[in-house]
């Protein structure tokens, strides 16, 4: 394993525009606020999650073809695998997610004589660490979600959370990156490539040369500084200005790279690469690294207690930024 194989952690803000999470719980669980204390209200909210994830069938959504479920092995209790810490307004633990509605073959890596066909009804899951902070008196919650190399479940999680927490308006889910991590990348990162992508329309003569048809082509141009000539984030705008003047001839069309629809750069720091879109604000949104010792290689999961402690620390560091007036 290398550091690049490690899981990362992504943070998302969960914004409930009109209702606090207390009001969401009361509305969705049909509670009588006068008779319930905070712990009971939060546990009712937790009950909605548990109910959806343990109803003997996988939670699915046709938009993603990725399902969510809570598997428990013999001797495991589901409300320990995914647990409420109601005094802290936290739900955390493991959730299983992965693709279904695909036909795949399975075999041993070193013996392909026997294969098993997995039909569309089978789901193949990975186990992800999930930490939800839903302060009852606030409109803003947080989701800390593990992302494995090459795959993640944040889109089905967004749809799943809306199914549970939506009262009238959708819960707005947006990526959040602590400013300190952005600053680290900006201070120490090296830009190692640019990619410009656009669709170019070109007239093509039809067979009889009288009617003209249009063809669409997706064009992607990648530019890398020579080894030894890499530069830092602070030089990004200068480099962009010079590279943006490069012109692409396409049939009778001429287009400079600065006019291409999407522009991306890759920034590298400590062998960690991160692609970011180059908008007007040059915002970068890197992910949070998870230390080696928090990975349980044997089970391909994170170590539960260490992951919980790590996120508790992280939450403590970013709380003031997200809840500037102590509204929790």
Query: How confident overall, as mean pLDDT?
Result: 85
Radius of gyration: 24 Å
Helix content: 10-25%
General shape:
globular
Structural class, from helix and strand content?
A: alpha+beta
Q: Report the order of strands and helices.
A: EHHEHEEEEEEHEHEEEHEEEEEEEH
Strand percentage, roughly?
35-45%
Q: Separation of termini?
A: 40 Å
Biggest pleated sheet: 8 strands, antiparallel
| Helix count from the secondary structure assignment | 7
Verbal overview:
α1 packs across α2 (38-53). The longest helix has 19 residues, at 304-322. The protein has seven helices and 19 strands. The protein starts with 7 loop residues before the first strand and ends in a 6-residue tail after the last helix. The mean pLDDT is 85. It is α+β, with helices and mostly antiparallel strands and 328 residues long. It is globular and about 70 Å long. β3 (82-85) and β4 (90-99) form a beta hairpin.
What's the SSE blueprint?
Blueprint: E1 8-15, H1 21-29, H2 38-53, E2 66-69, H3 78-81, E3 82-85, E4 90-99, E5 104-108, E6 111-118, E7 126-133, E8 140-147, H4 154-165, E9 172-176, H5 179-188, E10 190-205, E11 212-223, E12 231-232, H6 236-243, E13 247-250, E14 253-256, E15 262-269, E16 272-277, E17 288-289, E18 295-296, E19 301-302, H7 304-322
Antiparallel strand pairs: 1-8, 1-9, 1-17, 2-4, 3-4, 4-7, 5-6, 7-8, 10-11, 10-12, 10-15, 13-14, 15-16, 18-19
Helix pairs in contact: 1-2
Give descriptors for this structure.
single chain, 328 residues, 8-stranded antiparallel β-sheet
Summarize this, please?
The chain has 7 helices and 19 strands. It is of the alpha+beta class and 328 residues long. The two termini are 40 Å apart.
